[in-house]
Design a protein that fits this description.
mainly alpha, Serine Threonine Protein Phosphatase 5, Tetratricopeptide repeat, 3 domains, 13 helices, 68% helix, disordered N terminus
Length: 256
């Protein structure tokens, strides 16, 4: 598989050969724009010939629109061609584009397809959100979401798993005791994190321990205020009010 450096080198060689033809008695330096155009043309030709790396690179060029005219439809076509030949970067790029929904319309089913080929911390993290939220042809499944968050294994993902275990609308996937155990581990290493404390409070509420949930939620609100995390304030206070009424939280995670 050729790298971009190899493609550009080949293109430079091609340019030198053209300049050395007998018809050009006095070759002149090729303008920068023409050099760039010839390199892009070379990448396009190699992509059309089935070179996987070229398909990926040409797809990126079309998606970005920085050097050639932007065409997201064709860009995705070439990225998919590379992804179907097991190009890992193309697979992740398509998954990220489909999940984010910025350059192309959000498509969770397509994102799921390509994240499932990755087996990385990032792909497990994103799959956790896809299954927790559902939509676009993907069924919401808290069990799968918890599994993916735990497979990601970083603290943020584990904290998300605690939240899903505590708040999932589907009772069969809720597990207050397990959520408390994992949430306590995270709390020990993140004793001032409003989010970690918020999630742990939800776990205690799910387990019917509302006194502890109220104490923790009050701490989460205080830390949020001292850390100026105003975006968390409203939700934290709403959940505190629920715990004071002895009501656990039921929520579907929203996609970021």
């Amino acid at each position: 598989m050729k790298s971009i450096g190899q493609f550009l080198m080949c293109s430079s060689v091609l340019s030198l050969v053209l300049l050395s033809l007998p018809s050009l008695a006095f070759p002149t330096p090729q303008p920068k724009e023409e050099k760039v155009a010839s390199k892009i043309a070379f990448i396009q030709v190699k992509a059309e010939q089935g070179e996987v790396e070229a398909q990926y690179l040409y797809g990126l060029l079309l998606m970005s629109g920085r050097i050639i005219e932007k065409n997201t439809y064709l860009g995705m076509k070439w990225l998919v061609a590379a992804a179907e030949h097991n190009h890992k970067k193309a697979q992740r790029f398509i998954a990220d584009l489909s999940f984010d929904g910025k350059l192309v319309a959000r498509d969770l089913k397509l994102a799921e397809k390509w994240y499932l080929t990755q087996n990385t911390q990032w792909s497990h993290f994103r799959l956790g959100f896809i299954y927790a939220a559902g939509g676009d042809g993907v069924e919401r499944h808290c069990g799968k979401a918890i599994k993916q968050f735990l497979m990601a294994a970083d603290e943020l993902s584990k904290s998300n798993a605690v939240w899903v275990m505590a708040t999932c609308p589907d009772a069969k996937y809720r597990n207050g005791k397990r959520a408390i155990e994992l949430g306590q581990q995270l709390y020990q290493s993140n004793p001032t994190s409003p989010t970690v404390i918020d999630n742990l409070a939800a776990a205690y509420a799910e387990n019917g321990e509302f006194k502890t949930a109220i104490e923790l939620q009050t701490k989460a609100i205080a830390f949020s205020a001292s850390q100026r995390k105003d975006n968390l304030s409203s939700g934290l206070k709403q959940r505190l009010a629920s715990y004071q009424k002895h009501q656990p939280v039921r929520e579907v995670i929203a996609l970021p």
